[in-house]
Amino acid sequence: MEHESKTIAALASVTTATLTTLLLKKGLRNVWMRGTQPVRSEQARVVGRAFTLRFIPAREDQATPESWAKPTSTRGAIEAMPAGCVAIVDARGVTDAGIFGDILCARMQQRGVAALITDGVVRDIHGVLGTHLPVWCQGAAAPPSVAGLTFVNWQEPIGCGGVAVFPDDLIVADDDGAVVIPQALIDFVVDEGEEHERYETWVVSEVEKGVPLPGLYPANEEAKKRYEDWKKAK
Amino acid sequence: MEHESKTIAALASVTTATLTTLLLKKGLRNVWMRGTQPVRSEQARVVGRAFTLRFIPAREDQATPESWAKPTSTRGAIEAMPAGCVAIVDARGVTDAGIFGDILCARMQQRGVAALITDGVVRDIHGVLGTHLPVWCQGAAAPPSVAGLTFVNWQEPIGCGGVAVFPDDLIVADDDGAVVIPQALIDFVVDEGEEHERYETWVVSEVEKGVPLPGLYPANEEAKKRYEDWKKAK
Amino acid sequence: MEHESKTIAALASVTTATLTTLLLKKGLRNVWMRGTQPVRSEQARVVGRAFTLRFIPAREDQATPESWAKPTSTRGAIEAMPAGCVAIVDARGVTDAGIFGDILCARMQQRGVAALITDGVVRDIHGVLGTHLPVWCQGAAAPPSVAGLTFVNWQEPIGCGGVAVFPDDLIVADDDGAVVIPQALIDFVVDEGEEHERYETWVVSEVEKGVPLPGLYPANEEAKKRYEDWKKAK
Amino acid sequence: MEHESKTIAALASVTTATLTTLLLKKGLRNVWMRGTQPVRSEQARVVGRAFTLRFIPAREDQATPESWAKPTSTRGAIEAMPAGCVAIVDARGVTDAGIFGDILCARMQQRGVAALITDGVVRDIHGVLGTHLPVWCQGAAAPPSVAGLTFVNWQEPIGCGGVAVFPDDLIVADDDGAVVIPQALIDFVVDEGEEHERYETWVVSEVEKGVPLPGLYPANEEAKKRYEDWKKAK
Amino acid sequence: MEHESKTIAALASVTTATLTTLLLKKGLRNVWMRGTQPVRSEQARVVGRAFTLRFIPAREDQATPESWAKPTSTRGAIEAMPAGCVAIVDARGVTDAGIFGDILCARMQQRGVAALITDGVVRDIHGVLGTHLPVWCQGAAAPPSVAGLTFVNWQEPIGCGGVAVFPDDLIVADDDGAVVIPQALIDFVVDEGEEHERYETWVVSEVEKGVPLPGLYPANEEAKKRYEDWKKAK
Amino acid sequence: MEHESKTIAALASVTTATLTTLLLKKGLRNVWMRGTQPVRSEQARVVGRAFTLRFIPAREDQATPESWAKPTSTRGAIEAMPAGCVAIVDARGVTDAGIFGDILCARMQQRGVAALITDGVVRDIHGVLGTHLPVWCQGAAAPPSVAGLTFVNWQEPIGCGGVAVFPDDLIVADDDGAVVIPQALIDFVVDEGEEHERYETWVVSEVEKGVPLPGLYPANEEAKKRYEDWKKAK
Question: What number of C-beta contacts closer than 8 Å exist between D and E?
Answer without folding.
Answer: 93
